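During the no-cost extension, the postdoctoral fellow (Dr. R.K.) reprocessed legacy sequence entries with the updated structure-token encoder. One reprocessed record is reproduced below for audit purposes.
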Amino acid sequence: MSDFQSTTYGKCILAGEHAVLRGVPAVVYPVFSKHLKLNYFKNDQPLTSQYEGETGSSFRLLFSGVMDQAVKRLEIQPDQLKGHCIIEGNLPVGTGLGASAALCVNVGSLLNHLGFVLKNDLYEFCRDLEDLFHGESSGVDIAAAVEGQGIQFTRGGDWVKVKQRWQPELYISYSGQVGATSECVQQVKALFERDSIKAQKLDEQMGLAVSKVVEALESESSHRFKTLQEGFELGLSCFEQWDLTKGSVHKHIEDLIERGAAAAKPTGSGNGGFIVSLWESEPSEELRDAFQLVPVF
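Re-encoded structure tokens follow.
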């Protein structure tokens, strides 16, 4: 039996991508069917690791990089970390589901257990670790991994729980291509240099998308589905104008709409990864199989 265990989950951003870096809120939910687990076994040998499960091996280099970053951040010697870690899970890497944040929170939680990181410092510490992957982490993925439930997040580490009144039919499905978060972030930033007015308007539009999504989720009104659909459509429009729906992303969204989805948009940075789709009723087994739909709730 392990001496310590930490489990984190994938995340799905419903609205707020990219603009969250500039103070616009983001709505994010955990995807409990996609997990990453770290089991720690205490011993007096230098820290070792092994990888199991569907996607565990994908974290081999990432775990090494995060631990190196943690050692530098803590200003300790590598040989001060002892024991054995088993990384196991089915959370895919590079698909917009927050794999890097999930790993950083597991590592941060382990270092808290070992006495190197204070509980009150955990969020900031994990966000600093995630900078290794994204260069500039908004912290939204870290907050989702730490909180483990639906939140409205604002950069700076502030978030509130979404007071959800109903459970819409929301699903994620893989677009078929891997996106590069840092490249997408830079592409949006470049728009501010070329056309700051357009870039600012898109941030404001994404902010409106967030408002509609939160309003819909917290509403008991008969119009809540339509409001949620409008929020998704506003978010998709931002991604399209940022030119972040290239290749199979655009085709996947088109196919989802053609087969009955009320709305669909990228979740994460875009140009790859997963797509989140909204349906009026539960998709048929045929559709779930065809698109490999995974429920958000």
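The chain is about 40% helix and 25% strand. Residues 196-217 form the longest helix (22 residues). The remaining legacy entries will be reprocessed before the final report is submitted.
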